[in-house]
Design a protein that fits this description.
The complex is a heterodimer of chains A (250) and B (304). Chain A has 250 residues and is α+β, with helices and mostly antiparallel strands. Chain A is built from 6 helices and 13 strands. Chain B has a two-stranded antiparallel sheet with strand order 1-2. Chain B has a two-stranded antiparallel sheet with strand order 3-4. In chain B, strand 3 and strand 4 form a beta hairpin. In chain B, helix 1 packs antiparallel against helix 2, helix 3 crosses helix 10 and helix 5 packs antiparallel against helix 11. Classes of the chains: A alpha+beta (250), B mainly alpha (304). Strand 5 of chain A pairs antiparallel with strand 5 of chain B.
C-alpha cells in the first residue's frame, strides 16, 4: 500500500509540466421536484498546456460521476426447500448510490489494472469497503451482484465510448441520471490520461436535492411522523367521504 | 403523466397508478372487500419498493371503506359494540404487526413472509369461496332451494369465559373471540397492506356465527379503523407512507368503489362470489409462482 502511495506521489510530482484540465458541468444544482423523471448531465471542458495553448498530443479522458455512498446490506436469494428466500448476505460500508464512468476508449486499453483500481476507473474497481472478514471469491460474487442489480436500475453504468474529444482540446460526456437517484452531493471527476499515466485530474461537485413540495413531504414524514400520519388518514377519509357524496348527487 | 413520489424516491406514471386504484376500487365496490390484496402486489410488480407499497396501500382501503360504512350505517347494518371490540383488537394487532414488520425487515425475510402469507391465505380463502359459489350456482341452476345455513358459533368460542350480549349480531359470547379475530386481522393489515375483509367476513360468519345482515357493515367498520391505525403505525415506525402515492390510489379507488357498487346490483351474488374467488386464486397462484421460480433479482439492497 505504501509502495502504491509513493508511486502516486511520484506521478503527481512529475506532473508539474503537464497540461491543465478545465472541467465544467452543465448543472451544478439538480432539483428534484414534481414531475422529475431524471436528467442528463453534460460534463465538458478543455485540456490546455500551462502556457495556454492546446496540449497538442493524444490523450484519453475518463469521467467518473459518483453519488453519495451509503452503508448497505446486500442480500442474496437462494432456493431453499423449493422456494427462493434471502439466504446469504454481506455488508458494505461505502456503496455509492450512483456511479457512472464514461471514457473515450475502453478502460482496459487506456490504463493498466493497478491504475484503474487506484482511481476507481470502472465498475470492476468500486471500493465498497466490505464490513467483516469475507473471502475474496464471495466478495467478488456479491459486488458483481450489486453492480448488476444497480446497472439494470440505471444507477451504475460504464460507457467506453461516452467521451468525445475534439481537436485534442475539448471533451464532452453525457451521463443520465434516473428519477430514482439519491439526493446529496455528487462528485464529477475528470482524468486526462496519456500512455497509461494520469497527467491531470479535476473535480466538480453537483448537488442533487429535493425542493418545494417534495422536500416538504420528505421532511414532514421524517420529522413530524405523527402529524404526517394523521394527515394521510384525514385525506383518505375525506376523499372517500367526498366521493360518496358526489356520487349520491348523480 | 409523470409524477414523482417523494417517499418512494422515484417517478411513476400517475395514470397507471390511478387506473390501478380504480380496478381495485371497482372490485371493492362490487364485492365489499377492500381490494388491498390486489393493490400491494401490483404496486410491487410495478416497481414501488415493497415497504412503501404495503405502507401506502392501507390508506386506499380506508378511503374505499368510508362510503361503505356510511351506507351500512343508514341501513342499521353495523354492530358498533362488536365492531368496537374488533377495532380494539385490530389496533393492538397492527401494533404487533409493526413490531413484526420491523423484525422481519431487519433479518431480511419480510418479502418472503408477505409472499407466503399471500399464497396461504388467498389460496385457502379463494378455494373455499370457489367451492361454495360453484355449489350455489349449481343449486340455482337445478332450481333447488339453497341449503339452509345453520348459524352457530365455533365450539372453542363457546368455551371462552366472560360473556357479553351483542344484540345486533344476535350473540351471547365472550368478547375475547372477536378481540382475537380483530387482532389477527390487524397484524395482517400492517404486514400486507390489506384490509382483511376477505378473512373477517368468513370468520364472523363461520367462527362467531354473527347474523348475516350486520356482517359486511361491521367488517367494513373494523377495516376502516384498523387501516387508519395501520397507516399511523407505518408513518411512525417505517416512515414509508407516500402521501402522493396514496392520493393517486385514492383518486382511482374512491370513484371505482362507487362504480363497482352500482355494477354489483346487476349480477347474481353467487356469480359475483365466483368471479372474486377466481381473482383471489389467480393472485395466490401468481405469488406461488414467484416463490418457486428463480426471481429476476437475486440480490436486494437494504440500508444499514
Amino acid at each position: 500500500m505504501r509502495m502504491l502511495f509513493a508511486l502516486v506521489a511520484l506521478l503527481l510530482l512529475g506532473a508539474a509540466r503537464d497540461p491543465i484540465l478545465v472541467p465544467e458541468v452543465s448543472q451544478h444544482d439538480i432539483q428534484v421536484r414534481q414531475g422529475f423523471t431524471g436528467t442528463e448531465l453534460l460534463l465538458f471542458g478543455a485540456i490546455l498546456d500551462p502556457s495556454g495553448t492546446r496540449a497538442g498530443r493524444d490523450y484519453d479522458i475518463v469521467v467518473v460521476l459518483k453519488g453519495p455512498t451509503q452503508p448497505i446490506r446486500l442480500r442474496e436469494k437462494q432456493k431453499i426447500a423449493g422456494i427462493w428466500i434471502n439466504a446469504d448476505s454481506t455488508a458494505f460500508r461505502s456503496a455509492p448510490s450512483f456511479f457512472a464512468v464514461a471514457s473515450s476508449r475502453p478502460i482496459g486499453e487506456i490504463v493498466d489494472e493497478r491504475t484503474a483500481a487506484i482511481y476507481e476507473l470502472g465498475l470492476n474497481w468500486l471500493q465498497l469497503s466490505p464490513i467483516g472478514a469475507i473471502d475474496p471469491e464471495e466478495q467478488a460474487r456479491f459486488s458483481s451482484g450489486l453492480v448488476d442489480l444497480r446497472a439494470r436500475e440505471g444507477l451504475y453504468s460504464e460507457n467506453s465510448k461516452g467521451v468525445e474529444v475534439s481537436e485534442q482540446v475539448l471533451y464532452q460526456a453525457r451521463i443520465s441520471l434516473p428519477s430514482s437517484v439519491q439526493t446529496g452531493t455528487y462528485t464529477a471527476e475528470t482524468f486526462a490520461i496519456t500512455k497509461g499515466r494520469v497527467i491531470a485530474s479535476a473535480t466538480a461537485k453537483v448537488e442533487v436535492r429535493k425542493i418545494g413540495f417534495e422536500r416538504f413531504v420528505a421532511v414532514f414524514a421524517q420529522e413530524q411522523s405523527l402529524f404526517y400520519g394523521l394527515l394521510v388518514v384525514a385525506v383518505s377519509v375525506g376523499m372517500g367521504w367526498l366521493a360518496g357524496r358526489l356520487f349520491a348527487l348523480v | 403523466m409523470d409524477v414523482y413520489l417523494p417517499i418512494a424516491n422515484l417517478s411513476v406514471n400517475g395514470l397507471v397508478i390511478i387506473a390501478l386504484g380504480a380496478v381495485t376500487g371497482i372490485l371493492s365496490g362490487m364485492f365489499g372487500v377492500g381490494g388491498g390484496f390486489l393493490t400491494t402486489p401490483l404496486l410491487i410488480f410495478y416497481g414501488i419498493p415493497p415497504t412503501v407499497a404495503a405502507a401506502s396501500a392501507a390508506s386506499q382501503v380506508t378511503g374505499a371503506s368510508v362510503s361503505g360504512v356510511f351506507a351500512y350505517t343508514k341501513r342499521n347494518g353495523v354492530d358498533y359494540q362488536m365492531g368496537g371490540v374488533m377495532v380494539a383488537g385490530g389496533v393492538l394487532g397492527s401494533g404487533i404487526g409493526a413490531l413484526l414488520f420491523n423484525f422481519l425487515e431487519s433479518v431480511g425475510q419480510i418479502d418472503t413472509v408477505i409472499n407466503i402469507l399471500y399464497v396461504v391465505l388467498l389460496g385457502t380463502i379463494g378455494g373455499l369461496m370457489a367451492r361454495e359459489s360453484i355449489q350455489a350456482i349449481r343449486a340455482a341452476r337445478e332450481g333447488a332451494p339453497p341449503p339452509p345455513r345453520k348459524r352457530r358459533h365455533h365450539p372453542i368460542v363457546a368455551s371462552l369465559p366472560l360473556r357479553w350480549r351483542f344484540y345486533r349480531s344476535g350473540l351471547y359470547i365472550s368478547p375475547l373471540a372477536p378481540l382475537a379475530i380483530g387482532m389477527g386481522v390487524g397484524v395482517l393489515t400492517t404486514l400486507m397492506g390489506v384490509g382483511g375483509g376477505f378473512i373477517l367476513v368468513p370468520a364472523m360468519l363461520y367462527i362467531l356465527g354473527m347474523s348475516a345482515n350486520v356482517v359486511v357493515g361491521t367488517s367494513l367498520f373494523q377495516i376502516l379503523f384498523v387501516t387508519m391505525a395501520s397507516t399511523m403505525m407505518h408513518s411512525l415506525t417505517t416512515k414509508a407512507v407516500d402521501i402522493v402515492l396514496a392520493v393517486l390510489l385514492l383518486l382511482g379507488s374512491v370513484t371505482g368503489a362507487q362504480i363497482g357498487s352500482q355494477l354489483a346490483g346487476k349480477f347474481q351474488p353467487q356469480k359475483l362470489r365466483f368471479i372474486l374467488a377466481a381473482i383471489v386464486l389467480l393472485v395466490a397462484l401468481r405469488m406461488a409462482f414467484g416463490l418457486g421460480f428463480r426471481p429476476s433479482e437475486i440480490y436486494s439492497v437494504a440500508p444499514l
